[in-house]
Structures are given as C-alpha cells and as structure tokens.
Amino acid sequence: MSVGAGIGLYIAILTVFLMLYRVKGAILIGIFLTSIISWPRPTSVTYFPHTAAGDSAFDFFKQVVTFRPLQKIGNAIDYNYNKGRVWYALITFLYVDILDTTGTLYAMAKFAGLRDPVTLDFENSTIAYCVDAFSISMGALMGTSPVTAFIESATGISEGGKTGITAMVTGIAFFVSVFFAPIFASIPSWATGGALVIVGSLMIRNVRDINWDYVGDSVPAFLTLIIIPLTYNIAYGVIAGIISYVLINGVAWALRKISNDRLAPPNYDAAEVWVIPPGSIVPTWMRFVASRTGLYHEPVMEMHMQQRGGSMDSVSMEHDKHVHVQGRGTPIVLDKPEETTF
User: Can you tell me which family this protein belongs to (predicted)?
Assistant: First the structure.
C-alpha cells in the first residue's frame, strides 16, 4: 500500500466516525483534510513529488486562481458519416448512454427515497431524461467531456441533497471551480476514493430487495453488481444482468412449457413474479400532445394517481358516493354506493 493510500484509509475511518455521530459535511471534511495533508511538498505523502510531472502540477497549483481559455470549443465534431465505423460508434454510444443514465438516475432516486413504491418511477423522470440527453448532446458539440448524470451524485445525496436546489448549487459550484481550477484539480485520488467507498457502503443496502432465494433472480443481480466495478461501466453490468437473466429464466421457462411443468425447477415458486407497474408505456409528452389533439383521454383514476405522486394506498370509496383522496384532487362521483380500499 502506498503512503497516500494509507493516509486516505485513515481519513476514511475518521470520516466514518464523523458520520457515526452525524456531523454535517463529514465526507467533505475528510476529502479536504486528506488534500491539505497531501499538498505540502516536503512530505512523503505529497501529491507533488519532485519529478517533472510533480513540478508541473505544483506550478499550476500555485496559481490558485486562473482561467484557461477554451481553445477548441463549438462544432468540434468531424461530420464524416460515410464510414460504417462512425455509425457503429454512434449506436454504441447511444445504448451505453441510455443504460448508464437509466442505472444512475434510478439508483440515485432509490437511494434518495424518491421512487414511488407503486409505479417504481420517480417524479418528472421524463424531464430528467430529456435534460440529460440535451446536455450530453450539447457537450459533444462543444467538445467537452460527457455532460451527464454521474454516480458520484450519491455523495451529495448522502449529505441530504435531494431537491433541485442541490443541483442548482452544484452547477454554481462547478462554475466557480472553473476559476479555482488549480485548487480543485489538485485534490488527490486517495482523498475522494475513501468517500466513494463509504457512499458505496450506504448504497449496498439495496441488495436486501434482491430475491436471494431463487438462483434465476440472484445470479443476474450478482453479475450486475460485480461487473459494474470490475469494468468501470454501468452499461456493461446492466447488459450482463439482462443477458444472464434471459438465458437462465428463458431456458427454464422453455423446459417447463415443453415438458408440461415436469422439468420445472424445484423452488420455481420462489421466483420473483413479473409485474407491470401501473401507468402507460406511452411517454408523457406523447400523451400530452395526444390529449391536446383529442386522440387520447387519460383515465380518471390515473390522473388522480399522478396528482398524488402515483400512490393508491390511501384512496377510499365511501358510502357517500365520493372518492376521498387524502391530499390533492377533487372527489369523483360514483354511480352506486360501495366501500372499497386500495
């Protein structure tokens, strides 16, 4: 173990104790404390060793406040679409970005407790996808690194950031960091590595929801979990999980059908049942346009579910011929009196 990694480990343990006593900003304290220890040059844990690379990094660090002009920006793309490799790359980037964004958004929404327990979706998910798609497209046109959702968002969520104000403050902080690039670019990797490990330990609690009693469910889930960190790519893990799930459960399903359930797995009843969450497979914007043109009429109950965040756990139909919704929405008149609880 290197000296820097050792310092990062000790500070990570200190961060855990700070979190244990619920000290606000414990993760940030750990990151900056490790950075401050690593910045002085006359130490064995310095981030700026006396080498050519270390001297160059230290010269940049000493500027503290500076602004590097963007030399290559805007229309930084080669529009040569005559080659097949270009389309292969575009398709690859498309599905990788979709899977990466899906895995990140839904993992962060569940980690923040923002996913609806009924629809398994989170509020304004369509807008989130559209913003991500627009941002990554504009980033590509500007010649920058991908402007998309990153799993490091879990660090901010663990500190309590769960609203749009968090995103706005983060954007302002990124703008400020442009001028203080020498400081933020000099934060060593062993300062942030421990923080991500701690956040990962907080996120791993979601494995409790995996059906470990049936191999057809547990193996694909485990492959997804293990391949993501090994390949440094969320998309590869999701692909491995989907393919393994289809192969394992598809073969078992085919054998059951062919043998008339004589070759069914012994504990097949323990398999997780497939359910289709309530709602529509038609995107929200398509339903909005269709409703404006009179081509689509949204069910009344579905509209009230959306007004209430998608939950039907507190809808009661009482004898007064009304549906009382605990929250927003107006009563719905029924044709006959009855009492039903959803």
Answer: Belongs to the nucleobase:cation symporter-2 (NCS2) (TC 2.A.40) family. Azg-like subfamily.
At 221 the pLDDT is 93
**Which tokens hold the place of 81?**
């679409």
Give me the sheet containing 340-341, strands edge to edge: 323-325, 315-317, 340-341
For the chain, what is the total number of helices (H) and then of strands (E)? 13, 3
Q: What separation in angstroms does the CA of 284 have from each of 124, 152, 267, 281, 292?
A: 9, 28, 39, 9, 12
**What's the predicted TM-score (pTM) here?**
0.62
Q: Among 319, 298, 66, which Cα is nearest to 183's?
A: 66
Structure tokens at 281: 């497979």
87-133 pLDDT tens trace: 877 888 888 888 888 888 888 888 888 888 888 888 888 888 888 98
Place 204 in a pLDDT band, splitting at 50, 70 and 90: confident
Q: How far is CA 253 from the centre of its chain?
A: 32
- DSSP codes of every residue in 157-223: HHTT--SHHHHHHHHHHHHHHHHBHHHHTT--HHHHHHHHHHHHHHHGGGGGGS-TTSHHHHHHHHH
Q: Is the pLDDT of residue 217 over 90?
A: yes
Question: Per DSSP, what are the bridge partners of residue 315?
Answer: 325
159 CA to centre of own chain? 16
Token output for 74: 């805007």
114 contacts 125 by C-beta, under 8 angstroms: no
Tokens of 166: 């968090």
Domain spans in the chain, listed from the N-terminal domain onward: 71-161, 210-270, 299-341
Q: What is the pLDDT confidence band of residue 341, given thresholds at 50, 70 and 90?
A: very low
Q: How far apart (Å, rounded) are the C-alpha atoms in residues 236 and 133? A: 20
